[in-house]
Amino acid sequence: LAGGARLEAADGRPGPGHEDFRPRIVPYYRDPNKPFKKVLRTRYIQTELGFHERLFVAVLTSKATLNTLAVAVNKTVAHHFPRLLYFTGLRSAKVPHGMVLVAHGDERPIWLMYETMHYIHQHFGSDYDWFYIMQDDTYAQAEQVKTLVTHLSINQDVYLGRAEEFIGGDEQARYCHGGFGYLISRSLLLKLHPHLDSCRNEILSVRPDEWLGRCIIDFLGIPCVSQLQGQHYHTYELAKNTEPEKEEEEEFQAALAVHPVSDMTLMYRLHKHFSRIQLDKAYQEIQDLQMQIRNLTSLTPAGEAGLTWPVGINAPFLPKSRFEVISWDYFTEQHLFSCPDGSPKCELSGASKADVSEVIESALEQLNSRYQPLLRFSKRQLLNGYRRFDPTRGMEYTLDLLLEAVTQKGHSHVLAKRVSLVRPLSKVEIIPMPYVTEATRVQLVLPLTVQDLDFVANFLDMFAMNTLDTHDNALLTLLFIYHPYDAQRVSQVDVFAGVKAMVGELEKRYAEVKIPWISVKTEVPSQVKLMDIVSKKHPVDTLFFLASVWTEINMEFLNRCRMNTISNWQVFFPVHFQEFNPALVYRGEQTASSGTDFLRDGHFDRHSFAEACFYNSDYMTARTKLAADILDRDEVLESMEVFDVFLHYSGLHLFRAVEPGLVQKYALRSCNPRLSEELYHRCVLSNLEGLASRSHLAMALFEQEQANST
């Protein structure tokens, strides 16, 4: 460390008066007489360092209020907490959607509290720093609770809530009233758990919150407090027939928890009221920050010219070349002129229509707030609309509005105004996802037709090199699709005899490997019908990778297939990288590209949905819903792919992303005209766009014209 030498104790620690410590490097030493033992590292550094999640919330409910007050809690504040569970004695036959319920089997209040504390310690005691316990007739401001725990030290034993005196007890001993919720630290929970059984047998009480408070005081000597480390736990007790909108008391406005909430409607009204308060505070903070930015801008090197609009939002993205220019999408109130399917014009509907309507409404609101009472604007027509997504700041809009302006005296005038708006990117949230591992076995399914025979050898070679040689946990099943004419002659001439011979050679080379095949006779190889056959022959927990014969299997992609596919949660449809036709791209030149530019001469084929990763159980569930919808109309399946089944009948997350680890060599696909018009059209587009880039095609046409002219 700079600054000269320091006095240190004999053992190397800093001497008296020094509060910082000098790091020491401990050399690694392994005893040669002891056998080597591999060190198992945790998957995440957070686990190894002992980090905990911040807050766990437990809501005490009952069978009588589960479908009313508990549902209201779930709809108002549950999504603000990272983890929330509902605890009850007895459960009803049907649990409300979206609620995680733990039933203890006994409605006695003390027993419910005892079992809840025991359950929290057993399942979450080592994962969270703070535990907030509330009742379903309590309205808690979730953001305030989360802010509260960020200002408290996790090293202290905390029992924080609305402190109440015991009836006929010591004035110094107080318990936390359960109706207003209370906060317990992890250290307190760990110390309390060994005494829960004694408390259950020795302490008699009618109220569960009194019982818990007495238990904590008797065995740990820690009373409930309403103020700790400079933080106050503000509460408010609601009177009967209270009107939240008319309550103006400062105590009510600052309340962190409100009790008692008698019905669902009151819960929603409280939530609306406090949400409005928080929203007004947020807008006021934004205005204050914008004013500070304006005042400080003059002191910066760029001066006032460096002030961006809107104030506080990132400046627009500045492209460095014409290839980085973000294009604007043109729209009117009825039509969009940049459609997802590539068509030049489509009807404005759904989320896009709602987005445009909201932007126009917001523009009028801003104009009226700025010019009233002198002028009042109303919309006549949207003349032109433009929007684009800027990844550095959000969605930008430019509107040409035909407005009618009315003065205070009633005179009206029609004028056109151009307004600009920005919908800024909000706070980024991490979406919780179930934990998956890379040890899952992948079952590859490869459908083969007669047109695919020329590419099978390369597929099997890549499969053997990247999975069998590396002992990857992957299996392969071949699906031979016979045309009815070929199926009749299979005893004389088997069109797949060569493939079966190659499979036999692989099984001889790898004695522990078996590659089964399934033979199917059909004129129209529907992806869904083929998958139905394969699904019935595998367990429900099988992870399928539906491959194509041009796919080059590698371990990197198989691991991403495992990680991106989550049972009962998400399916994965990768977009493979398709190499261009080398005859058009290289025109006789060297075709081998360098290792760093292996994705150079090609494109990601967004028209292909042939590859997919999903669990058999998820497919069977979606397929059952599809069967109930189409009844016996099997011809509908010929116009569908597996992607359509999951999209319309699963309710799962469909993860569609480019996959650089899935590279396919160029090949002209055979498009079956007997499939649906949409599937055939996508196949033709895939072939056409896979020929070459525009520059390569232009060069080929130029050379052809040069040759013809000479």
Short description:
This protein is α/β, with parallel strands linked by helices and 710 residues long. It is built from 20 helices and 27 strands. It folds into three domains: 45-267, Spore Coat Polysaccharide Biosynthesis Protein SpsA, Chain A (Alpha-Beta Complex); 329-424, Nuclear Transport Factor 2, Chain: A, CATH 3.10.450; 442-588 and 598-697, Spore Coat Polysaccharide Biosynthesis Protein SpsA, Chain A, CATH 3.90.550.
Description:
Helix content is 33%, strand content 22%. With 710 residues, the protein is of the alpha/beta class. The protein has three domains: 45-267, Spore Coat Polysaccharide Biosynthesis Protein SpsA, Chain A, CATH 3.90.550; 329-424, Nuclear Transport Factor 2, Chain: A (Roll); 442-588 and 598-697, Spore Coat Polysaccharide Biosynthesis Protein SpsA, Chain A (Alpha-Beta Complex), CATH 3.90.550. The strands form eight sheets. It has a six-stranded mixed beta sheet with strand order 3-2-1-4-9-6. A five-stranded mixed beta sheet has the order 22-21-20-23-26. Helix 3 crosses helix 7 and helix 17 (616-630) packs across helix 18 (642-649). Residues 1-18 and 592-597 have low confidence and may be disordered. Pfam families: CHGN. Residues 1-23 are annotated as: Disordered.
Give short descriptive properties of this protein.
single chain, 710 residues, alpha/beta, 6-stranded mixed sheet, 5-stranded mixed sheet, 33% helix, disordered N terminus, CS_glycosyltransferase, membrane, Hexosyltransferase
